[in-house]
Task: structure prediction
Amino acid sequence: MMNPNDNNTGNMQNQGQGWGPQAYQQYSQSYNQGGNFDNYSHQNVYDHYQQAVQQTPPDQMYQAHQQYYNQMPPQQRQGLFGGLMNAFQQHGISPQQAGIQGNEPSPDNLARASQYANQNPDILSKVFGPGGAMNSPLAKGALIGGLIFAGKQMFG
Result:
């Protein structure tokens, strides 16, 4: 039997539930405790993210990503940006199509790239989905970051 005070319990309870206040609280708690998201399945995070994109106005989702990317360390932003550029190119998408201006891994460029993926579900799946081009802890963190900051606007 799992101990309800165990930090992993909240993460595991989240598995299989839909996006809502409880999932937001669990992701936020993990973020506030150092950002260890290893116990979350990529599939579950992706499912929550898709639900949040459907429930959240696009401008709020853009702002959520922008806020998260502003807090992301520059090295991680660079890694995510490089991965996104490679993933988009693999699927025949130019940086300009995705709204990216220049070659800087700025929070604005990353938010625009996320927004582009959100507005194109096939691209979202191919880039950020489980087994997608960006199937990595960094990509999962970017999805969770979007969830946390969108959830703060919705539920916080």
